[in-house]
Amino acid sequence: MTDSGDHSSHGGGDSDVEAAFVPPADRAPHPAVGDDPSPPSEPEDADSDGPEPASRRYGLDATFCRRARVLLGVMFPSCGAYTVFLLMALMVACGAEQYVVYWVGIIPSRYYQVLGDKDLDAFGVLTSECLGLVLVISFVKGTRIFLSTVLYVNWRQLIDRALHRRYFAGINYYLLNVLDQRIDNPDQRITQDVDKMCKTLSTMIAQLLVAPFIIGYYTYAVYSNTGYIGVLSIYGFFVVATVVNKVMMTPIVTYVVRQEEKEGTFRFKHMQIRVHAEALGFHGCSVVEEHRCNRRLGALVATQLALFNRRFMLTLVVNLFDYLGSILNYLVIAIPIFAGMYDDKTPQQLSAIISQNSFVCMYLIYNFTQLVDLSSSATEVVGVTHRIGQLMERLDTLQRRRESRTPSPEPAGGDGKPPPPPGKEGEREGEKRGEKVAKKEEVMKGGAEKKAEDGDERRVSDADPTSARFDTPYRLHSVTVRAPGGRQALVADLSLTVRRGRSLLVTGSSSSGKTSLLRVLRGLWLPAAGSVRRTVLPGPRHVFFMPQRPFFTDGSLRQQIVYPERLKEDGYSAAETEQMLHYLQLTQLTGLAERCGGLDADVARNWYDLLSPGEMQRLCFVRLFHHRPSFVFMDEATSAVSPDMEEILYQECLRLQMTLFSVGHRESLTSYHDWKLHLLGGGRWSLEPIAPPAYRAAQE
């Protein structure tokens, strides 16, 4: 074996060390089935699309109709869906309410008649009927409100679950929150925006659906009492009101979208302070953070004031038409009276007729003005519909892009020879390093692996770990790594195979690309050039990743240990619990179990506030030991623990026969690895074997 200086590489190539680390059969230049080839331009997730322009306008346009149609398909998944039943029941309740309202509305005209005739018996009967109608309309109205609330909750559940399916498909949540710039505050869109849309729409939709029938009936009633002049007057009034409100609504929708964006930014800033309260306390930067919070608050208030200024004019117009409607009512009633249609009636009869006709005309005008009044609520619905539709469209786009990059199941050409890797570097490697027999074997072998990889994720990750496929879960061929949007290569033309029993330590200066290499291995980024073959999907029992910043979900201490798996519904045996407690003792976290009230006590506090950085890393190792994967990829996993604890943790990993792929700076880590990949910066790297320490040499 040559010295480390001979193993450096600027463009990769075939060093002797690489030949030792990657067996000859693995060195054939092939974009084998199961690889993630990538064009040499940018990593997959570096989206060339920029952020949504702040000047973009939203409104009741074709884009809104398209997005609303998609959301309606989610809210009503089939004709027999529960939400369809709820909507039908809500419409029946609204129809029943309108029927009772009609009889309540003509009661004044009957009272005029009874009181004018001084009929005491009829007065008592009419009063009893009124009390009965009050009870009926109270029940019907309460039923309508209840059905509307249940419909709102079911809509929210359907839309949020549809968004969750897209959000958690693959790594879309990572792309959207870390690399994508087009969608602001996806968490706010999934929570607050969906809630606001469903709640507002549930109060509007029944009224919108029942309104045509009510308007049709009362139009006939008005025509019977006043003729076509009364109907034309009311309809003309409504057309003018609708046009004016449409003109006033259009600019407001854009400001509703902007207000939600600023609201999300302001909320995120306070969430950031809550999560990092201890670090901010150490820095003593309350003045700076107060200034930054106030700046975001100022931007939010400025947007809200701009929205309210425009909404003021809309409210003014709405109220204007509301009161004009009441005047129009008497103008319509006056037509038949001054035309002499009721000259033969007594004063008592005329009062009753005026009261009844007034109710009919007023109620028709009222229904029209109710539709006009909905314009204010409609602006909210249209605005948040755009935001939710944007999110859904973006998630679908990210998923399609990822699926479109899945390699073809037939990589070979007509002569059976696989094409070279993309880019000039791949072509040079193909000229230097290929043999036909090896290529054909690798293509056939890769096809079998691809079939397994394309299957059900749970079935693949739970497959037999003794299978030969699990011996080499990752193979990198001429891989170049760049940061999203960056041009300088962090790692250039790297080829290696991760093998069972051959642990690898990755070292290098800060920003040399160590974590970026792990992102490529995990599939968070695609390589800028070259290919990565994954024969096994990541799973806690086989391939386990420990990122630099540990993640802890909500729930009990046991939930943190078994994560990312869910707790067993039938509970854990005494032996399993004893093993968890043993690992807590091994990592000196016995006191943590006592502070939490045991393994299964629900912890209401934020785990990041409860644990120190060292405790977080040790608890992650408890999680690792519980799952016992074959391969573990660790990014600075022991940077916050003492060297003595680091030795305990790594010794246990070796005892459990895990193959390690570690990123770290401490020289002591070399004792637990077989090879060292040192990133030199500028894309250069070196790969060399590590002489085993005395105790490992004795074990071997």
Task: Please supply descriptive tags for the structure shown above.
three-stranded antiparallel sheet, ATP-binding cassette sub-family D member 4, ABC1_TM_dom, seven-stranded mixed sheet, transmembrane helix, elongated, ATP-binding, alpha/beta, nucleotide-binding, 2 domains, Rossmann fold, ABC transporter transmembrane region fold, 61% helix
Structural account:
It contains 22 helices and ten strands. The protein is α/β, with parallel strands linked by helices. It folds into two domains: 4-40 and 422-552 and 611-699, 3-Layer(aba) Sandwich (Rossmann fold); 62-399, ABC transporter type 1, transmembrane domain (ABC transporter transmembrane region fold, Up-down Bundle). A seven-stranded mixed sheet has the order 1-10-9-4-8-7-6. A three-stranded antiparallel sheet has the order 3-2-5, sandwiched between helices. The two termini are 20 Å apart. Mean pLDDT is 76; it is low at 1-51 and 407-466. One of its GO terms (biological process) is long-chain fatty acid import into peroxisome.
- Give the uncertain stretches in residue-range form: 1-51, 407-466
**Largest sheet, if any?**
7 strands, mixed
CATH top-level class of the largest domain: Mainly Alpha
Examine the coordinates and then state which fold CATH places here, giving the name of the CATH topology of the largest domain. ABC transporter transmembrane region fold
Question: What would the average pLDDT be, to the nearest integer?
Answer: 76
Domain ABC transporter: 474-699
Biased composition (Basic and acidic residues): 395-405, 424-462
Family: Belongs to the ABC transporter superfamily. ABCD family. Peroxisomal fatty acyl CoA transporter (TC 3.A.1.203) subfamily.
GO cellular component, one term: peroxisomal membrane
